[in-house]
Design goal:
72% helix; globular; 16 helices; mainly alpha
Length: 446
């Protein structure tokens, strides 16, 4: 494996690990906000218990997200020195502002954890809302750098020198709006389905009291509702993202759909495999005209194919599979959220066991969708680190000692993941929900 591929593998594995905790760190605060508001509106102590217990889980996750994010930041400098020359001069601003967003999150997280029971209801809600705002702002600001790599603005390169730098033009690059919205909606979706997975698992366990079952049914309903809404939001935003790709990264859109010939009335290809030698897509189900509409809002819209671009600038064609996985998982999660909600509201019956078994998988499925989406987004920009400005081969380090680092960091990530699971399991096993429910006079049975 050459140095560039090792650098990509090491950074990619670091991001794949960090994104688990970063995504939950954005999604769970929204769930806590909703639980707090429901508590004060419905006067049901179950929702206060949810907010507190989800906050404890969030705190454990944050304890891993912070150091893993620090590692990712250090790796940017170590593995991509060529890229960091551009970062330091052009796109450093969102990284600097992100420090303040994190400060806001950490400050009000401390207030909420240690003083929530002594705060008036309004200030209690405001404090946790500010935690969520800080977490979301951090995600958007970090994502801004990724968006800028796709649609670089705010500078010129003259004779190899970076000139005419406009930091705000870089920050407000054309893809930040769709990319930022997509990151937030998918993170909120994942946080909700993580809660849904746990609640469904608890409802499957026998021998629990009715207080516990009522508590977990409420948690599952809230999680499915938010997860479903955010899944739809993510899908709708996907339409805006496709239009952004059509305008600014057309070869990425073409590779995602296995489209070689530029054409109007372009079909949307579902499934199948892309053959770069024969320049065809095999085994796909094609929806006539759908890609043109997705990209241009017109069925007769012209979508550029890969044949319009030099082959050395094509993204890896396997991103078609990644794109299909991402979209397929998102569609499945919409069904997995609204179908049980409709069943519960219309029939007024407990969820069937097979439904709960399926919902246990919703959290992992959502996380797989997040991972697939990030791999698609970053790999689909190849062979560029900064689109049409800097190739990945020019951005990477020339160090020859990355193999050992790769093995060591993979070991560290596996260890941290195992420790996180053990700590989470140990804490909640030794702090069950029933005593908290009983101490508040019991839950309202619903």
């Amino acid at each position: 494996m050459d140095t560039v591929m090792l650098a990509r593998s090491l950074f990619g594995s670091s991001m794949a690990f960090h994104i688990i905790f970063a995504t939950l760190g954005v999604g769970l605060p929204l769930m806590i906000v909703v639980a707090e508001i429901l508590f004060h509106v419905k006067k049901d102590p179950d929702y206060s218990t949810m907010a507190k217990r989800w906050t404890r889980g969030f705190a454990i996750i944050l304890g891993v997200a912070i150091p893993s994010g620090t590692i990712v930041g250090a790796m940017l400098a170590l593995l991509w020195p060529g890229f960091m020359e551009y970062v330091g001069q052009v796109i450093a601003l969102p990284f600097q502002i992100e420090i303040w967003a994190f400060f806001l999150e950490a400050l009000f997280m401390s207030i909420y954890v240690y003083a929530a029971d002594r705060l008036p209801p309004l200030l209690r809600i405001v404090s946790v809302i500010l935690v969520a705002i800080g977490a979301s702002a951090s995600a958007v600001l970090i994502t801004d750098a990724h968006a800028w790599m796709n649609t670089p603005r705010g500078f010129k390169v003259v004779n190899g020198e970076i000139t005419d730098v406009d930091p705000w033009a870089a920050v407000l690059n054309p893809s930040i709006w769709s990319t930022g919205a997509h990151v937030l909606s998918s993170a909120y979706m994942t946080g909700a389905f993580a809660v849904a997975s746990v609640a469904a698992y608890k409802l499957l366990k026998r021998g629990r009291t009715e207080l516990e079952y009522a508590y977990h049914r409420k948690a599952l309903f809230v999680a499915l509702l938010i997860g479903g809404v955010m899944s739809v939001g993510t899908a709708v935003n996907g339409h805006a993202t496709a239009q952004m790709l059509h305008h600014y990264l057309p070869e990425k859109l073409a590779a995602a759909e296995g489209l070689f010939e530029t054409r109007a009335y372009a079909p949307l290809a579902i499934g199948g495999s892309v053959d770069g030698e024969d320049r065809t897509i095999r085994g796909a189900i094609e929806i006539p005209w759908a890609l043109s509409f997705l990209a241009t809002n017109r069925f007769d819209g012209v979508v550029r194919g890969l044949n319009d671009f030099p082959k050395e600038n094509w993204p890896p064609l396997y991103i078609h599979t990644l794109f299909n996985l991402m979209v397929g998982i998102g569609t499945l999660l919409i069904l997995m959220s609204f179908a049980p909600i409709a069943y519960r509201l219309l029939l007024k019956r407990p969820y069937p066991r097979w439904t709960l078994l399926a919902l246990v998988a919703s959290g992992p499925l959502s996380m797989i969708g997040i991972e697939t989406g990030w791999i698609f987004s970053c790999t689909g920009r190849q062979p560029w680190t900064i689109y049409h400005v800097q190739r990945t081969s020019d951005a990477a380090t020339r160090s020859e000692s990355l193999g050992l680092l790769f093995v060591l960091f993979i070991g560290i990530y596996l260890f941290l993941l195992l420790v996180t699971i053990v700590i989470m399991r140990y804490y909640f096993k030794h702090h069950p929900v029933l005593p908290e429910l009983s101490s508040k006079g019991g839950a309202r049975l619903e």
